UniProtKB/TrEMBL annotation:
Organism: Goodea atripinnis
Region of interest: Disordered: 1-22, 84-120
Annotated keywords: Membrane, Transmembrane, Transmembrane helix
Transmembrane spans: 49-77
Compositional bias (Basic and acidic residues): 1-11
Bias type Gly residues, positions: 100-109
Name of this chain's protein: Leucine-rich repeat-containing protein 52
Length: 120
């Protein structure tokens, strides 16, 4: 029977009368709708707002720290890859010899001073 009542009152929502709570008994739902909503809706308190601020600060801080760490890691990786490529380039020049180098003129005394000089 409950389902039948619901069907009858849906078309007559403006005519539906409250039975409970006792202080609202006899009044139409359309008239007390906003009052019920205000009575039943819980507002946020001081501690709720403080909690949201704390959580927001933690999320912001975690994002800032993670971005900083990623930046440091990128710089370290860039230096490592640059150093590795320079080592590979210097090994390639050693294997090719002075004739195949980019200098074109052989050993002219302008090369790396830490290497022993080549005599012809």
């Amino acid at each position: 029977m409950q389902g039948g009542r619901e069907r009858r009152t849906r078309g007559n929502e403006g005519q539906t009368i409250c039975h409970n709570p006792p202080e609202l008994a006899g009044q139409r739902v359309a008239e007390v709708g906003m009052q019920l909503r205000a009575d039943c809706h819980r507002g946020l308190g001081y501690w709720d707002y403080l909690f949201f601020i704390a959580i927001g600060f933690v999320i912001f801080s975690a994002g800032t720290v993670s971005a900083w760490v990623m930046g440091v890691l990128m710089v370290l990786y860039e230096r490592y890859s640059k150093r590795k490529s320079e080592e590979l380039d210097s090994e390639d020049e050693d294997e090719r010899g002075p004739m195949h180098g980019s200098g074109g003129g052989g050993n002219q005394g302008n090369g790396d001073l830490s290497k022993p000089s080549m005599q012809v």
